[in-house]
Design goal:
Elements: E1 4-7, H1 13-22, E2 27-29, E3 36-40, H2 44-54, E4 63-65, H3 72-75, H4 81-90, E5 95-100, E6 115-119, H5 124-133, E7 137-138, H6 153-160, E8 168-171, E9 182-185, E10 192-195, H7 201-208, E11 212-213, E12 242-247, H8 250-260, E13 265-269, E14 282-284, H9 291-304, E15 312-315, H10 323-334, E16 339-341
Parallel strand pairs: 1-8, 2-8, 4-6, 5-9, 10-11, 12-15, 12-16, 13-14, 13-15
Antiparallel strand pairs: 2-3, 3-7, 4-7, 5-6, 9-10
Bound molecules: threonylcarbamoyladenylate (TXA) and magnesium ion (MG).
Threonylcarbamoyladenylate binds near residues 61, 116 and 121.
Amino acid sequence: MKTVIFRADDPQTPKKAAEIIRAGGLVAIPTETVYGLGANAMDEAAVAKIFQAKGRPQDNPLIIHISCADELERYCHDIPQSAYLLAERFWPGPLTMVLPVRDCIPKSTVSGNDTVAVRCPKTAVTRALIAEAGVPIAAPSANLSGKPSTTTAEHVLNDYGEDGLIDAIIDGGPSAVGVESTIVDLTGVRPRLLRPGGVTPEELKALLGELEIDRAIFSQISNDTVVRAPGMKYKHYAPSAEVYIVTGSGEAAAAYVRRHYEQGDAVLCFEEELPLFADCNPTAYGRRADVNTLSAGLFAALRSLDRPEIKRIYARCPEGGGVAYAVGNRLKKAAAFRCIDAEAEL
Ligand code: TXA
Ligand code: MG
């Protein structure tokens, strides 16, 4: 069986895709963050197919996607007031909340945890699909495990081929946000940011009054450490080349890269800096002046650089809070937190 491609603007798509989900199949779904690899979250056999297709470690729990905030209570219990506040302000949208899970969700979906990560995505066709299926859809990012996330239907096809490894893909065009959702854990004494994304730490703090930042966001965590969001400890978001972040002015960074440039090197930079790196195999992922273009373009650029002839990537990384914090987090993870201070190397 070949993988079926559904168009997001075909009115039949939610119904047809829902049939596949209810029958225990895999459907790649577009969301405003990245594409997800979806299955019925209540069906253990279907969930097992997600882990198998992605090559995902079994200890890495899945996010369940719901069609509206009212469904939260079906799958979670002891929901704090803060969750309702967040849902009202940011759903549908790029925010995932970790809450105590009800027994109706199989243990394998949540990798044996007593919590579940829940998100209500913005993309209309995906919410229509969830409503039509009548079940929550478990969906990790649709990339093969360890690869950069998928932000187009074509990326998904590149990872899985057309020969039915997954049953269908809904093509909703490029994901607008481009990095995975913000994850906030509401099961502790204080709300804790587990992964930065399109909903910014500043927005969360403004609404919640307080926010702890999980250390997995800003440092490398070894594989045997117990962390709250297991996915954050794996080498992740990374092409096969070694990635190095080069900090400092564009001029200093270009001078450093030119001095060290060898065959097999490439540069991932801001559009504004393309002329500076002209001799060093540059790829731009967006404009420094507009961080949303950087988040939207990051994974497509990392994927385009995932080629055997590219051995080392020098990456330019936006600094500061807001969405830049999420972009910086993904790039630093791709680089395993290796940073070169170009100003100090002058
Ligand atoms: O934007 C997104 O969140 C995308 C789209 C498809 O919705 N999904 C996504 O899923 O990024 P995934 O599986 O690639 O990343 C989910 C992250 C992992 O780091 C996982 O460890 C963490 O969420 N996670 C899942 N359930 C959790 C839980 N109960 N407690 C803590 N972390 C959890
Ligand atoms: Mg992922």
